[in-house]
Design goal:
Layout (H helix, E strand, L loop, with lengths): L14 H5 L9 E5 L4 H11 L3 E8 L12 E7 L3 E6 H4 L3 H8 L4 E4 L2 H11 L7 E3 H6 L8 H9 L19 H22 L11
Helix pairs in contact: 7-8
């Protein structure tokens, strides 16, 4: 019988500690889907056959007060080797994508997934199923920090860049830096999920 190794995760991490860690980023194939057609359906077919995928969304930021929030601009779904970036503000939230997000047999791993799901449901109503929220999961390992950046440092011992977080996700064309950032955010959630499953939960933890 395989016994998971014991590992004590730090409950928190400081910015200074994160700055000393090596940078990690998604190095697989990134495909941007900005129109419906054969490429869109190839992406859907691929994702339908994955057991676990990373999940995230991006929204164009608002910098002035009393300004309405923008809707979801980008949906990121990633396996270990391929990341698909669906430009939702261009193609909408199509039923084949909703079916993936409703499928309980496909585990979708993200952080603070509730708001992301709600944003997508505003565009196309669907019943979300098969989601794992890393923020809730990590509490069972005694980890108190919640951001993807800090969780990556604690769980993976790596640093991810957040410099593109507040960039324009509705730009006519995504930059290479935006693509890597978006793919990494989804992919690293999947990686952390698998890393946690290799270890035992903290003996005195409780999911809050």
């Amino acid at each position: 019988m395989f016994l998971r190794r014991r590992k004590e995760y730090a409950p928190t991490v400081s910015p200074e500690e994160i700055a000393k860690l090596p940078l990690t980023l998604f190095e697989g194939k990134i495909t941007v889907i900005d129109e419906l057609g054969p490429e869109f359906m190839r992406a859907v077919r691929y994702l339908r056959h994955r057991r676990v995928i990373g999940f995230d969304t991006e929204t164009r930021p608002v910098f002035t007060p009393h300004t309405p929030q923008h809707g979801v601009a980008l949906l990121q779904l990633s396996s270990g080797r391929r990341a698909y970036l669906f430009r939702i503000h261009k193609i909408g939230m199509e039923e084949p994508l909703a079916e993936i997000l409703s499928n309980p047999r496909i585990i979708k791993v993200g952080a603070a997934v509730h708001d992301d799901i709600h944003g997508l449901q505003k565009i196309f109503p669907f019943e979300a199923d098969g989601f794992v929220d890393l923020q809730k999961m990590c509490a069972e390992w005694g980890i108190q920090d919640k951001s993807v950046k800090k969780l990556t440092a604690i769980i993976m011992g790596k640093r991810i860049s957040k410099t593109q977080q507040l960039s324009n996700w509705e730009a006519p064309k995504l930059s290479d830096a935006q693509k890597i950032y978006a793919a990494t955010d989804a992919w690293i959630c999947r990686e952390m999920y698998f890393e946690l499953l290799k270890t035992r939960k903290a003996a005195n933890s409780s999911a809050q």
